[in-house]
């Protein structure tokens, strides 16, 4: 009982620890997942969006740079070109490119709030350059030739260098912002990576601890089960030995009582019958005395027969003298005579001598099965057969009465069945109790015979 409580305690503690461990592991994995999702959301909503904004601003600056380059090149070609027919296309291209550049810078200033000052300065520098360039490219060919070289070299080129320097400054600032965003994103990703790796490591350690704890408890339970099994096996062996000793003591006591009945009570009954016969044969005995003596002698004779049957039931001397087959055949004939039932006996290939313990076991099983049939079946016919086949001795007792409830075989009322099974177990035999068609009960005992 102590081992059972210990095993239950181990199982309860193991279930509690495993449940808590798995809950902690699931919570840790869920926390890692939530942290990963929040980090990705932070990167996508913050850093990635910032990168997208920086990329859009850089695209506007690139557009402005390309447009300004095209516009200044067109102004140069218009001022320094020798072919008057090409002047107007250069002017038109310069105006169009300049318009695109100004629009790009204004859009840039609207989206880059932190670049309002250099963007405004760039627009002013562009305005100064374009005002001078616009006046110059409007001149006719003769005046352009006079003022072109001086104006382009001394005024337009310095103004161009100024706004291109401002444009480069804006691009450099934006690239620094982009690098800062990238560094910040890399830092966030690095921290998240370290934390997630730490979480994964803790999860692996926790899972390993759960596995080790599981194996440890399984080993403890296995050892407890092995110990319990060993104790149960020892208890079964001890119980079997005890049952064997009890049955042997029972048989010894039956033999003693049978001898007492036969040797003592039987002899005393015989003496009384002899004395009664002597009284009846006396010459002075009256008819009344003879009649009373004959009646008493008959009752004593019946009592002697009953004692003889009781002695035979306790220990059959016939079993020792004529063997198992003869003992069962004789008993069946006696039962038929005493009860007026139809008792059929059959045997096949049964040797005269059997091992004493097997013969006694089968005979006791027969007696119990016959008594059950007589007491409970209400049958008018009982068939008994005993045969030897394939080194197995088989006894079959079948009635044709009211049958039985199979569920009752496991109840406390079937002590006779328990006794039969225990006897057969001691000699390696088996017992089968089943309904018999069309009605009644069949009891079959099978015992292996030792190989000579």
**What is the typical, i.e. mean, pLDDT?**
77
Structural class: alpha+beta
Largest sheet: 5 strands, mixed
Helix share bin: over 70%
What is the highest CATH level, the class of the largest domain? Mainly Alpha
Sheet with most strands: strand arrangement: 1-2-3-5-4
How would you describe the shape?
rod-shaped
The N- and C-terminal alpha carbons lie at a distance of 45 Å
DSSP helical segment count: 8
Question: What do you see in this structure?
Answer:
The protein has 452 residues and is of the alpha+beta class. It folds into two domains: 2-217, f41 fragment of flagellin, N-terminal domain; 317-448, Histidine kinase-like ATPase, C-terminal domain (Heat Shock Protein 90, 2-Layer Sandwich). The chain has eight helices and five strands, in the order ααααααβαββαββ. It has a five-stranded mixed sheet with strand order 1-2-3-5-4, covered by helices on one side. β1 (342-348), α7 (356-377) and β2 form a beta-alpha-beta unit. α1 runs antiparallel to α2, α3 (116-137) runs antiparallel to α4 (141-280) and α6 runs parallel beside α7. The longest helix is centred in the middle third of the chain and has 140 residues, at 141-280. It starts with a helix and ends with a strand. The model has no long low-confidence stretch (mean pLDDT 77).
